[in-house]
Write a structure and sequence with these properties.
single chain; 380 residues; alpha+beta; conserved putative lor/sdh protein from methanococcus maripaludis s2 fold; Elongation Factor Tu (Ef-tu), domain 3; OB fold (Dihydrolipoamide Acetyltransferase, E2P); 4 domains; 6-stranded antiparallel barrel; 4-stranded antiparallel beta sheet; 3 helices; 19 strands; 31% helix; 41% strand
Length: 380
């Protein structure tokens, strides 16, 4: 009787368990009968480019702060900020009066020195003639030694005077050359083709190199733009001079500017563990300028004719990367080996064949062996 009563008490639970099992089996059968709608992509071949992404700041090809090398009052500045300039173009003039007066003074001193030389030469000729005449008389014992010695001393003084006058002329010529150079330096010319980016002094101010107040204009050569960026030492073996780069700046968000690596600094910063790379970008229309934030993509590798698929439905797990492959209406999970990436595309080096169909939308609803209804899409 007791066993019978226990059986009656357990009967509802046994029925509930049997009913649950039946429902799960029916649900599984229903899932198997239904086809999951997914979008698929046919594995194809294409070209991908592998990039190294770095950032940097744009710099001018050349830049200089220019002003007069001599002290003087600025008479005129012939350019303004933003003006394009050519090499050799006159940019600044100082007041010329003092420089011209200095040239006139040294010319007058040179003229005087030349006149002194002519008088000294004439005197030397006279003393030379007297010296030859008295020397002949002295050999004949016709004059005294005292008179002979006096003439000899006068002749030596005359020669020294000519030599001194020649030295004076040389000095006056050097002074004139310096005065003319100072006058030339009072006119400042452009050292290279470029653009005026800053004006520090104005007309009427005194330009003085000794007072550290000589920088008048800042000019830059923007025909080409340099970009310097720091790259991890891990990438050093991958880079070489001449490699192509693509540069993006905020001023032109829809454009990419091309450049090339010109310099790779062999020294690695021991603190940052980076090395400096310099890139040169043609800029004939002066669209780029200095100080822009640049996003740089260095082209490391270009692969053609490789298998590529969209990256968005690749499942990454601890044991590898997986996609669902559809064959005869059945989805099967398959392990793949991805390669380089570019944007939303990724190379597949192992696991897939050209022409196979993979799920690119709806894989989150799938399990291995599910039947699917496919809708092809053309991604590439």
């Amino acid at each position: 009787m007791k066993r019978f009563l226990k059986l009656l008490m357990l009967l509802p639970f046994i029925c509930l368990h049997l009913t649950g099992c039946s429902d799960r089996e029916n649900f599984q059968e229903e899932v198997n009968r239904r086809k999951v709608s997914v979008k698929v992509y046919e594995v194809s071949r294409g070209t991908l480019t592998s990039y190294l992404h770095v950032t940097g700041t744009t710099l001018p090809l050349e830049e200089a702060k220019i002003g007069s090398k001599v002290e003087g009052t600025i008479q005129e500045i012939l350019v303004d900020e933003g003006d394009l300039i050519k090499k050799g173009q006159v940019l600044i003039r100082l007041e010329p009066k003092d420089f011209l007066l200095d040239i006139d003074r040294t010319k007058a001193a040179l003229k005087t020195a030349r006149a002194e030389l002519e008088r000294a030469r004439y005197d030397l000729e006279q003393k030379s003639e007297d010296w030859r005449r008295l020397s002949a008389l002295y050999e004949k014992r016709a004059i005294s030694k005292h008179r002979y010695d006096s003439m000899k001393a006068a002749f030596s003084i005359a020669k020294a005077k000519v030599k001194s006058c020649r030295s004076q002329i040389k000095e006056r010529k050097a002074e004139l050359k310096l005065a003319e150079k100072r006058y030339q330096d009072s006119v400042v010319k452009a050292p290279f083709n470029g653009v005026v980016t800053k004006k520090m002094l104005h007309e009427g101010e005194v330009s003085s190199l000794w007072a550290y107040n000589w920088e008048t204009l800042e000019v830059m050569n923007l025909s080409k733009i340099k970009v310097e960026c720091d790259v991890s030492e891990k990438r050093k073996s991958r880079l070489r001079e001449g490699m192509e780069t693509h540069i993006e700046v905020d001023a032109y968000p829809e454009e990419r500017f091309k450049g090339k690596i010109t310099t790779i600094n062999p020294m690695v910063d021991p603190l940052q563990r980076t090395f400096r790379v310099k890139i040169l970008i043609p800029n004939p229309e002066y669209r780029l300028t200095a100080g822009m934030f640049a996003r740089i993509k260095i082209v490391l590798d270009v692969k053609e004719g490789i298998l590529i698929i969209p990256e968005k439905e690749i499942v990454e797990r601890p044991d590898g990367h997986f996609v669902f492959v559809v064959q005869d209406g059945v989805a099967t999970r398959r392990k793949i080996s991805p390669g380089i990436k570019e944007g939303k595309w990724v190379e597949v080096t192992e696991g897939l064949k050209e022409g196979e169909m993979i799920v690119v939308e709806g894989s989150h609803r799938l399990q291995d062996g599910y039947q699917v209804a496919t809708q092809p899409i053309m991604e590439h």
